[in-house]
């Protein structure tokens, strides 16, 4: 009676008021329906689609501007050391400020407010950089289309820029009155600071070529990215030397008028005033923009983890690479098609800032509809500390951390000064954009090869191959000879970036405990992208200032190659400490438990059948 009523109660055919012992069954049904309603509210596909769209648009917006930022600093007249300090400060601000704002936004449950404020503020602060005048006002004219731009009836744009710096007592190069100036008349790319100084003072190219290591200060004044960047970088060292010798205060009230609100900067010369203004704006820009990625990543991951679908969140990273490739390639193509001047006294490189602000406006509706979740039970600060302890306790994890740090140092030099090297070899925005797009697409294609690579090489060897590939890239960059020369080396990003981060991911899975893989990957990313990027930017700027761009890439290549020689030996000597992956262990225990339960069920069924058969035979024998 009790068993039959129980079976009927599960099917919902019996009223439970007639059985007092079964009052717990309606509670079970209510909890089941509540769970079903809760699962219906979480749409995993919709959340993954929004996460992929946000990553695509966000990376596309960053790629429109950030790769070209150092070129803009060069156009304004900053030296390599100043550029390195600015970019290094940008990386260090992101290293400290991103996790801090992420923890505060979680503690006060203000994640969506932080995301929207970060988007609006980053677009506004980035446009402030366009308000800063270059050190050389005459260098704002661009020569990207010499045949299409005419200053006068018998003078081209290049002629005006060149003759504006010629002293009254000297004569400039003569050209045909009807034909534009040939690029061969302008300073060749191998001239040094002394040669360019003679060009500025006399208007004639120096007949001598000095093989001096200061090759970074010479810029091609031909159909390259911008003539204003080359002329400003040429005349900046001359101004610095004059200011050091004469110690004269900055001249011109018009130049000082833009810096009246910074009284402490009035005693400096124009390049240092501009440097400190850019440093303040870039630091503010990084403070308002860097919490965006961290906050969105936490909110989306906790939302999917609440629905037990956090494993699918890693697939959204591919959309970020595709968006970055589209952003840098499309922006380079569009900007290369623009006229030399967008408006009066506005160089076309300013279009990168406008594209960035426009894409940020497109991200706002997606950011407002992101499904975010707040899980107060998980303390991210303690989990990060536990991840650091796991890395410290494993020798292989420490070797992986040091390798990612070196890769970050080398990668920052490529990000900051590769475009300078390409510009010196005559590359335009089109060459730069397509080269960087090819690198990102090759990096995104590595997951298709990960299965075959894992069968051939261990994760430790893949880590070595990734670092060695980056060293080969840097060595190749030091010998660029034409505008398209950097394109073949960009294909190695499939190994230098894609394979390296795949090896880091496998290393995290081997060492980390349950739930700590993501925090360990964050630590590796912070070591490489922010700490290594900051140190590499500081050091790279001073190396370029002293020795030149080619020697910077050669030094980075030699350092990476030496580390790749010692890394396999250290990995072989290090003891292997493989930690238990509790998630896999629980899954294995569950499968074993289900197998044992099924075996017990079969044993019970077999015994019952044997007993039933024995009873029937005994009854037959008794009847006979």
TrEMBL record:
<feature type="transmembrane region" description="Helical">
    <location>
        <begin position="113"/>
        <end position="132"/>
    </location>
</feature>
<feature type="region of interest" description="Disordered">
    <location>
        <begin position="589"/>
        <end position="624"/>
    </location>
</feature>
<dbReference type="GO" id="GO:0016020">
    <property type="term" value="C:membrane"/>
</dbReference>
<feature type="transmembrane region" description="Helical">
    <location>
        <begin position="430"/>
        <end position="450"/>
    </location>
</feature>
<feature type="transmembrane region" description="Helical">
    <location>
        <begin position="47"/>
        <end position="69"/>
    </location>
</feature>
<feature type="compositionally biased region" description="Basic and acidic residues">
    <location>
        <begin position="208"/>
        <end position="217"/>
    </location>
</feature>
<keyword id="KW-1133">Transmembrane helix</keyword>
<keyword id="KW-0812">Transmembrane</keyword>
<comment type="similarity">
    <text>Belongs to the major facilitator superfamily. MFSD6 family.</text>
</comment>
<feature type="transmembrane region" description="Helical">
    <location>
        <begin position="551"/>
        <end position="570"/>
    </location>
</feature>
<feature type="transmembrane region" description="Helical">
    <location>
        <begin position="524"/>
        <end position="545"/>
    </location>
</feature>
<feature type="transmembrane region" description="Helical">
    <location>
        <begin position="395"/>
        <end position="418"/>
    </location>
</feature>
<feature type="transmembrane region" description="Helical">
    <location>
        <begin position="485"/>
        <end position="504"/>
    </location>
</feature>
<feature type="region of interest" description="Disordered">
    <location>
        <begin position="159"/>
        <end position="260"/>
    </location>
</feature>
<feature type="compositionally biased region" description="Polar residues">
    <location>
        <begin position="219"/>
        <end position="238"/>
    </location>
</feature>
<feature type="domain" description="Major facilitator superfamily associated">
    <location>
        <begin position="55"/>
        <end position="554"/>
    </location>
</feature>
<feature type="compositionally biased region" description="Polar residues">
    <location>
        <begin position="159"/>
        <end position="174"/>
    </location>
</feature>
<feature type="transmembrane region" description="Helical">
    <location>
        <begin position="81"/>
        <end position="101"/>
    </location>
</feature>
<feature type="compositionally biased region" description="Polar residues">
    <location>
        <begin position="613"/>
        <end position="624"/>
    </location>
</feature>
<feature type="transmembrane region" description="Helical">
    <location>
        <begin position="353"/>
        <end position="374"/>
    </location>
</feature>
<dbReference type="InterPro" id="IPR036259">
    <property type="entry name" value="MFS_trans_sf"/>
</dbReference>
<dbReference type="InterPro" id="IPR051717">
    <property type="entry name" value="MFS_MFSD6"/>
</dbReference>
<keyword id="KW-0472">Membrane</keyword>
<protein>
    <recommendedName>
        <fullName>Major facilitator superfamily associated domain-containing protein</fullName>
    </recommendedName>
</protein>
<dbReference type="InterPro" id="IPR024989">
    <property type="entry name" value="MFS_assoc_dom"/>
</dbReference>
<dbReference type="Pfam" id="PF12832">
    <property type="entry name" value="MFS_1_like"/>
</dbReference>
<feature type="compositionally biased region" description="Basic and acidic residues">
    <location>
        <begin position="599"/>
        <end position="610"/>
    </location>
</feature>
